[in-house]
# Entry
Amino acid sequence: MTDPQFALTERVQQALAAAFGAEYSDADPLIRPSQFADYQANVAMSLSKRLRRAPREVAQEIAEHLTGRADDPFPGTVEVSGPGFLNLTLSDDWITAQVSEIHTDPRAGVGVSASPQTIVIDYSAPNAAKEMHVGHLRTTIVGDALARVHEHLGNRVIRQNHLGDWGTPFGMLIEHLLDIGEEAAVAQLEAGEGNAYYQAARVKFDTDPEFNRRARTRVVTLQAEEPETMRLWHIFMDATVRYFNKVYVQLGVTLTNEDIAGESMYNHVLAQVCDELQERGIAVLSDGALCVFPPGYTGREGQPLPLMIRKSDGGYGYGTTDMATIRYRVQDLKADRILYVIGATQALHMSMVFDSARMAGWLPDHVRAEHIQIGSVLGSDGKMFKTRSGQSVKLLELLDEAETRAAGVIQDREYDDAEREKIAHAVGMGAVKYADLSVSHDSEYVFDFDRMLALTGNTGPYLQYAQARIRSIFRRGGVTPAETTGPIVLGHPAERALALQLLRFGSVVEEMAENSAPHKLASYLFDTASAFTTFFENCPVLKDDVEAATRASRLALCALTLKVMEAGLGLLGVPVPERM
Ligand code: ARG
# Structure
């Protein structure tokens, strides 16, 4: 247990059980960083009521149990202070032993799951023939970070890009493709002009009766998966996916064509899904539509709300596909846990799908299904993010702009053009991605280039810069991080604070995976960079008058900090440029 807060929590819980009985063994000791010691435990105050004793007396008794174990001495000192705080200071020996261990550990203290799980992650999922918008950017970035962290912990990750690639609009989209010709259509779609393409088809659909008739017929042949229609559908989808892939490549997300599992994939099982649910009485007909009524959902007038799985005209919808999706992920993919990284606006839909799937027995109790709600990205006007002209923003253009602006940020440094371009790319993408990851995934935030590209504050570029600065220490010192041997000695309080911070990495990574909370790792990395800055300002590393042993120790701390920063940013999917 390298995380000092965890180690202390365990110790205090054992002392509680020994002092007051086993029922106290899982009380939260309320360990917090302290001004007067490494940490303080506030548990005596919260327990005093339950125990009907003075808090200071309770604290005293905990302290005695903490330090009184001859077989396993407390690795530091305990002091009761004020009305009943327990001040806990860890011994230098304990800290250096732990920190030396993770200094030589290639995983920097991040464990590997003892019982790996199969984790299905549904993310990105843009819609064909509609612009991939900033919201999809955020589900893509957050989902990708979750995929990376679970893989790193040794879980089996199955990415599912649930593209919107099916449904009635495809009738008119295919007919429009025939009208303008394959080549023109492909060019337009590959360029990310899906919106314009859709609009043009839509106008004809609404105004041209002949086109309208053709589009409707096309929906029928599409549903039947008639070969010529499928050929045209593939041309349309392949070009669209090529555009999505450009965005993925530029962003550096791990999604590939292998991960595509769009709505179309479920077309052939939708009828069966409906039949089965109807036969088993889980879905019932209501005004001609087939619906599941999971308990606990009511509309304004108190009427039960349906999850519609077949419309009265016989068509299937989003709910049908999602029921098929969940069944497939549990039965075929053998998921232990399913993460749906989707906009917060779909919360009701997802919750009804999960409950309906539980009713159907398709989502057994031992499988966790979670909607990782993604908050909206807003413009400076507080409304949904759009361009000045009110159009939705073209993602590739947005990413290009991030890179151009990033080049401005690093303008005054001396790099050749190729190097500058590489760094600008890393900084631009790092800024955009980190902005999505550093706030809790369900909160909204305002898209603001100036803020996300700032070199100070909790931003991607600040963290990239922090790690690049550590690299430059090694360049100047003529050593590589791998060559640092320590031993690590803690002299200055800033060294101690940095060491304690570094020891937390493994548990923070686990917390991110458990709670699907990339922002926890982000703020940990920000705190780590700050602890490093304080260390570096107070503890010279390369200066001539620094003793060899001190220099070796400090270089080892630099190397470990770099390893943690690099690994942490890597898990978030934020690129780490060598220089900045
Ligand atoms: N295509 C959908 C959208 O843009 C997201 C799909 C999410 N996945 C799912 N299984 N419903 O909103």
About this structure: The chain has 21 helices and 13 strands. The CA atoms of residues 273 and 346 lie 22 Å apart. The first strand starts at residue 31 and ends at 33. Residues 227-251 form the longest helix (25 residues).
